[in-house]
């Protein structure tokens, strides 16, 4: 297939390279010249395991090119739209400026019979509106909505071998043709029996936000249990293990900690609330506001724990922050709980020194007031407290005995419950986890 991918960020760059890796001819388009220059040279503009390798092999095969010029989509039949849908400043709703601009820029280049495929996460009703916009310009082109479920850190694997495919298509022949084109694009995954749900636009749009709302709720549920554990002396980790053995509940996504962040869950649940209110059904997802509030309280809880253990205030105390990315194996700091906690501690007068294997550059651009080091030893040197905020392997495997020699005060706050409390306590540390005695 000849494919274009509009928007080459965390989703689009991986999609473009993966589709080329699968044998399709792909052109990636973005308005960010620096990003397109990097991608064209085989450099991934962000950290994603496996992306540089497939990027370089796809470029070498000649099946992958990048451009800032929309005219370059002319040779393609299927056009994926993967631009950002961030939260509007000062509002809960999603900002559709980029999606609308991308479709408007694409439309003049569509040939008869071309298929536009939405991948961005959008409020329900967006596809119907975009479809009308496309139809007004070209009555033979059509639209499908094909939400993306990739996880940063596993994005290449998730794109090449997705756990399901969802096609939102119009009724009738147009929809059948759209499904057939998407089946060609995803032929490799379909051969491996990947489940495929073919449905209407509204359902496809809702599938994505419902999935993220469910995941966010699961995380906030266990964090709510952590809050109760904290005032009752219970251990939320054992609780999660015990309820997780029930297959109807399941253990995954039941890790209490500093909460969720990133470029998806927080803004998606807020956009869902805003859209539900527009549709007159705000009460149906009113619980998502509570999910959000529980999540944000966990950041405060970490700050409070540091304060409590340092005698009530952190002013001039050296705090080593381990982790800045919103999750391990990513450099993404969008709405990162880790970075938020680092900034809060800095604001309270602590001498914060932060480290992260991949997210320092992005963090420094956003918060130049913080001190960063790429060396864990430098970060923890003479620290009054260490706070683990992203569960990178490097941090999970730290040696408490060796580390105790380097700090002024052996205090560790485990914001991700990713360390073994017994091991740290035996080595002489004061260990505080989230929802653990
Ligand atoms: P991103 O900010 O990393 O990438 C968006 C890209 O679109 C940027 O490179 C930007 O320059 C480009 N862009 C903006 N306007 C454009 C235009 N008019 N024409 C061409 N390019 C344009 O965002 P992302 O994380 O890749 O997310 C993109 C969408 O995918 C969002 O709707 C998001 O919710 C959804 N999504 C993301 C993930 C994820 O893990 N990142 C997973 C599933 C779904």
Give a written overview of the molecule.
The protein has 437 residues and is an alpha/beta fold. The protein is 44% helix and 13% strand. It has three domains: 2-199, Rossmann fold (3-Layer(aba) Sandwich), CATH 3.40.50; 209-292, N-(1-d-carboxylethyl)-l-norvaline Dehydrogenase, domain 2, CATH 1.10.1040; 300-432, Rossmann fold, CATH 3.40.50. It is built from 18 helices and 14 strands. The strands form three sheets. The chain has a six-stranded parallel β-sheet, with helices on both faces. Strands 11-10-9-12-13-14 form a six-stranded parallel β-sheet. A two-stranded parallel ribbon has the order 7-8. Helix 13 links the parallel strand 9 and strand 10. Helix 1 crosses helix 3 (51-61) and helix 12 crosses helix 13. The structure holds nicotinamide-adenine-dinucleotide.
């Amino acid at each position: 297939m000849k494919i274009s991918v509009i928007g080459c960020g965390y989703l689009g760059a991986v999609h473009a390279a993966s589709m080329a890796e699968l044998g399709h001819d792909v052109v990636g388009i973005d308005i960010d010249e620096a990003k397109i220059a990097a991608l064209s040279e085989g450099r991934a503009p962000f950290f994603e395991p496996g992306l540089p390798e497939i990027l370089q092999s796809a470029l070498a095969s000649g099946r992958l090119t990048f451009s800032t010029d929309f005219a370059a989509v002319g040779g393609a039949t299927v056009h994926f739209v993967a631009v950002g849908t961030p939260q509007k400043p000062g509002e809960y709703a999603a900002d559709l400026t980029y999606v609308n601009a991308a479709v408007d820029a694409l439309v003049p280049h569509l040939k008869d019979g071309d298929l536009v495929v939405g991948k961005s996460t959008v409020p329900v009703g967006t596809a119907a509106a975009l479809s009308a916009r496309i139809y007004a310009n070209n009555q033979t082109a059509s639209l499908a909505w094909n939400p993306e479920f990739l996880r940063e850190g596993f994005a290449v694997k998730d794109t090449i071998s997705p756990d399901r495919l969802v096609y939102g298509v119009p009724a009738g022949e147009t929809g059948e043709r759209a499904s057939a084109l998407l089946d060609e694009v995803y032929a490799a995954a379909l051969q491996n029996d990947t489940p495929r749900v073919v449905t209407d636009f509204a359902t496809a749009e809702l599938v994505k936000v419902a999935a993220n709302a469910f995941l966010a709720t699961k995380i906030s549920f266990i964090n709510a249990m952590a809050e109760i554990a904290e005032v009752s002396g219970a251990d939320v980790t054992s609780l999660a293990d015990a309820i997780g053995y029930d297959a109807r509940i399941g253990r995954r996504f039941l890790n209490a900690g500093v909460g969720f962040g990133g470029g998806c869950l927080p803004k998606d649940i807020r956009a869902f609330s805003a859209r539900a209110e527009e549709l007159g059904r705000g009460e149906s997802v009113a619980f998502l506001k509570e999910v959000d509030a529980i999540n944000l309280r966990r950041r405060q809880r970490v700050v409070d724990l540091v304060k409590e253990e340092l005698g009530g205030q952190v002013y001039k105390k050296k705090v080593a922050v381990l982790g800045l990315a919103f999750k391990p194996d990513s450099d993404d700091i969008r709405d990162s709980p880790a970075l938020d906690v680092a900034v809060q501690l800095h604001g309270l007068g602590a001498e914060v020194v932060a480290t992260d294997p991949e997210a320092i550059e992005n963090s420094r651009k956003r918060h130049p007031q913080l001190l960063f080091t790429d060396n864990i030893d430098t970060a923890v040197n003479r620290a009054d407290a260490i706070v683990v905020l992203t569960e990178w392997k490097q941090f999970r495997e730290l040696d408490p005995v060796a580390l105790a020699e380097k700090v002024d005060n052996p205090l560790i706050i485990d914001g991700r419950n990713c360390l073994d409390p017994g091991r740290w306590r035996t080595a002489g540390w004061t260990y505080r986890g989230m929802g653990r005695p």
